Sequence to fold (284 residues):
Amino acid sequence: MKTYLNYKNKIDGYIEVKDTIKTIEKISAVNIHLLKEKLINLNKYINEIENVLSQIYPFCNHFNNPFSERLSKRKKQKRSLLIITGEKGLVGNLWHNLIGILLQKKKLYHYIIVCGKKGALYAKEEGIKFHKFFNLNSGLPEAEINDIVNFVLYKFKKREISSCDILYPHFISLTRQEPEILQFLPFNLIPLPKTNRNLGFPIFEPNKEKLFNFILEKYIIAIFYKIIFESKLSEFSARTVNTENASEKTKQLITTLYLKYFKERRTNITKKQLESFVVHKLKT
Fold:
């Protein structure tokens, strides 16, 4: 069998791989821009909610909101951890780093929730038992995100869990994403900016406690969306960088195979020419 043809087949295969990697890289890069835009809009929405809460908070700070820090002292402590991963790979060590933190901290938690098939897969490989699993597709369908946050809020309201921390890949830059554990519930409401007292005394409908609790729940959900978007931004950033590196390595490999291909082909042609020359001489 002509070995140079084997090289040619390998080259064709690697070219297909390179094209696929390049396509994944472009898709990831596009998603980065889309997610950054979503985060900008979401931050504006969060700022608006904070402004509304700042108007109401001075009249409602004595309430025992079902998600507030005041209810954190429960008789039966059952801490939970929500880990956010993804459905696909090609992200370098991103998912492995999260599982590494989970391995270190798992004894602190009684209830573990995993989002994303990769997280579930790696958790099983490490022998980590989790109690609930959610899909988290790259398209970030609103129904999936709402299912996750509503489940966590329901468990906390019913006191089936006493707290919920979120382990997710914190976005720092395109080339840097680090695992971070954030306390989600009980929700610690940050000090709100002082409202303008000249606006007068507000009128609450139906009453200020229900209104405050309703808006605060919307605020908590918005914060959860922000964490999800940031996690996906980290995922696509890691995938963009890794596919770019993989594309460059594949390109180098193709170049090396081409050199070997031409060398083998030249050797094969030279061998045939020598054989033809010898046969011709023998005949004469």
